[in-house]
Amino acid sequence: MIQPQDFLIAAEAALSIADTEVQCRSAIHLAYYAVFHMVAAHLGRETTGDNSVKHRELARLLRTNNKIDPVLYEAKRNFTRLMTLRFRADYHLNESIGINDANDAIDWAYEIFDVKINQPVSNKLKNLTAT
Q1: How far is the C-alpha of 82 from the C-alpha of 21, rounded, in Å?
Q2: Cα gap 12→123, rounded to integer Å
Q3: CA–CA separation, 14 and 57 (whole Å)
């Protein structure tokens, strides 16, 4: 079964060979969905079915959540800007998306994942699969 971190690993793989705008857009998309699925699970929300959490709803849940939780703190800092970048990458084809945008998306995703696994991860999630 696929795990949220698998999307982030795939985002890094796409970025490592990114020589086209499409690959940069793909890396952003994958980094976003890694975070979306991880944060939804962390909040106990489903991502499929009739009661699934929607993207903007998840952003609202993060904004209004007052729990002292390091994962939610990092998600509050990074989720909305990652979601906005993903919207641009997926829907605004007339805008230029480049390597810097893709790097930002992956960096923001790692900031959340690093807190989730409670250890720094530099450029690889190899230790995350052990949790």
Answers
A1: 17
A2: 8
A3: 28
pLDDT in tens, 87-120: 999 999 999 999 999 999 999 999 998 877 664 4
Give the whole-angstrom CA distance, residue 112 versus residue 69.
12
Q: What is the pTM of this model?
A: 0.85
Alpha carbons 65 and 87: distance in angstroms, whole number:
23
Q: Is 93 left (phi over 0), alpha (psi -120 to 50) or beta?
A: alpha
- 68 φψ region: left (φ > 0), alpha (ψ -120 to 50), beta (else): beta
Inter-residue long-range contacts of 17-24, CB under 8 Å, 24+ positions, other chains counted: 18/99, 18/102, 21/96, 21/97, 21/98, 23/102, 24/89, 24/97, 24/98, 24/99, 24/101, 24/102
